[in-house]
Amino acid sequence: AEARPRVWVSQPLFGDIVARLGEHFELDAATDVTIWSPDAIADRLHDASGALVTLNERIGAGEIASATALRAVANVGVGYDNLDVAALHARGIVATNTPDVLTETTADMAFALLMAAARRVTEGERWLREGRWTQWSFDTLLGHDVHGSTLGILGMGRIGQGVARRGALGFGMRVLYHNRSRLPERIESNSRAAWVDLDTLLRAADHLVLVLPYSSATRHLIDAAALAKMKPTATLTNIARGGLVDEDALADALSHGRLAAAALDVFEGEPSVNPRLLALRNVVLTPHVGSASLATRRAMASLAVDNLIAALGHGPRAGDPPTPIGAPAAGGI
Ligand code: 8YV
């Protein structure tokens, strides 16, 4: 019999979901969390027809140079700055991601972080656990209101719209957004959000949330100059990619009272975190868990598997993967 095509799965996902790939392909699946070097990735891809990868694995021209059988790369995650899509497409390799299934879960996390920063939730917990709560007092840990404030959203894709709806409907916030292109009126009115230019967004927001894709064009979009435009009472929440923010400029602003607080789920050099951020009391830090609910992570793994099976010409959607990466996204994730 002809050898079955081989697929590489870079990290342990859910065994029962990954096993579906085994119905069609020979599986080369990591059983432990693994840090893959570029050379090791090239080696795994060398005789693979397909790959299922996470944000940990960068797949570019070098990694695919000797992968002559490679026809599809399925990314687990909606953001795909780890993939050089142009290099994949130039070789006729299909790339897919996992939009939609993580939208609401990630928008929930944006609000958890925003509220934690504004109301000093994790700071208060640390303070209590350190045994510093000796007497209730009127002015302990005063924060800033979320309800009725102005929510600024930078990057108004699916997740940005989910954050907007939560702000408008749940917390009575005035919602402003900035996106490269203004959204159709129907989406603006569903999200109860108004488009403004970036400068206006930075100046008006009481709580600014970053939900835009990372690329060379958006690297350090939030730099010292941008932070200087924000209100000293404002908070900044980042659930997108760490590289959108100049972390040293952020640490400067936070330590000099030019910004009230920040909540960060993503970091430029993750998993290592800028020590200046670690040292600040007014930063909420989480380890890139925006989409990390059990149901959503299962849905992401399942969608990635469906994409890979279809892209490699098998299953009910043979040749028509559900969520291929096509033209660049319109400015949000
Ligand atoms: C994923 C993410 O956990 O979807 C994204 O863009 O950052 C996260 O939801 C990550 O991409 C896993 O590879």
Description:
Helices cover 35% and strands 14% of the residues. The chain has 13 helices and 12 strands. A 7-stranded parallel beta sheet has the order 8-7-6-9-10-11-12, sandwiched between helices. A 5-stranded parallel beta sheet has the order 2-1-3-4-5. Strand 4 (72-75), helix 4 and strand 5 (94-96) form a beta-alpha-beta unit. The radius of gyration is 21 Å and the shape is elongated. The mean pLDDT is 96. Bound molecules: 2-keto-D-gluconic acid (8YV). 2-keto-D-gluconic acid (8YV) binds next to loops. It is an enzyme of class 1 (oxidoreductase). Residues 315-333 are annotated as: Disordered.
Search tags:
single chain; about 325 residues; Rossmann fold; 2 domains; 7-stranded parallel sheet; 5-stranded parallel sheet; about 15% strand; elongated; binds 2-keto-D-gluconic acid
Short note summarizing the structure:
This protein is an alpha/beta fold.
Summarize the topology.
Elements: E1 6-9, H1 15-22, E2 26-29, H2 38-45, E3 50-53, H3 61-64, E4 72-75, H4 85-90, E5 94-96, H5 103-118, H6 121-129, E6 150-154, H7 158-171, E7 174-178, H8 185-191, E8 193-195, H9 198-204, E9 207-210, H10 224-229, E10 235-238, H11 247-255, E11 261-264, H12 275-278, E12 283-285, H13 294-311
Parallel strand pairs: 1-2, 1-3, 3-4, 4-5, 6-7, 6-9, 7-8, 9-10, 10-11, 11-12
Helix pairs in contact: 1-13, 5-7
The structure holds 2-keto-D-gluconic acid.
